[in-house]
């Protein structure tokens, strides 16, 4: 969610005071009211384009592989995996609609895609961020039920329940973000600041103190729910593992019961998705904290600090496929089948991904 920064405010002051100086570069050289451009030298510019473009490509193709895997292979079509596929869709859309345009903005320090898409860009950014966190929140609830009662879980968290969770995550996130930014409520009380910052080639979306608090609460509440649920999950998983170990030692069994195997599988899934939640929090929490601090201290964050925080958040969209690839053998096997084109074979959707 783009916001105003102190450096952008000073940019406008520089423009008004030294606009006649030959050294000043503008986003649009032949237009009055153009924003001041602060470009990087060639080497850093190339490095930044490479890093940001790599992030966008990894995000798009990584999450596309997750979606294809879950939707193509029948063995992966479970309520939890449908949530994961929908989460991957949100990350995929970040890679398509947000990251490429932010790459140009971050490197060139100018917005060349028009004011209308500037607003849409911010709406997409907000929508997909909140969609991700609410998907992760429902996934944590799903894992909590699965670990606490793995045998009853299939009747409690069904495909229809998963569908309702997905629908809520998308509808709430899109309606909130587009309503807030589309009506201009986010900038209420900041009209003078917005007017002072308006220039051709700029894309600054100001968010007032009231709405930045709402933004933070919509991030913090599901975050708190996830922390509580995963804390309970890992405590229960530890207790279950200890009970199974003690029982095995007493009975000297060489093989696990069906219930033991189910419990172990659910604990492993919870641990993997817990890593995904932790990665999300580490990526997005600094950005939200900075947004609150900035709104109450007069937008003092320098542009380069803001760009670092927002790209750390963007890169979270590329991390989940890497996490799945590291922890899930079935995902690695599915990706291999997709890349080699074996998914085009007849009956490929029925391949057993959990064998071998």
UniProtKB/TrEMBL annotation:
Pfam families documented for this protein: 7tm_1
SMART domains with a match to the protein in the record: 7TM_GPCR_Srsx (SM01381)
Keyword Transport: no
Location(s) in or outside the cell: Cell membrane
Transmembrane segments: 46-70, 82-102, 157-181, 217-237, 269-288, 308-331
Membrane topology: Multi-pass membrane protein
Family: Belongs to the G-protein coupled receptor 1 family.
UniProt protein name: G-protein coupled receptors family 1 profile domain-containing protein
Organism: Capra hircus (Goat)
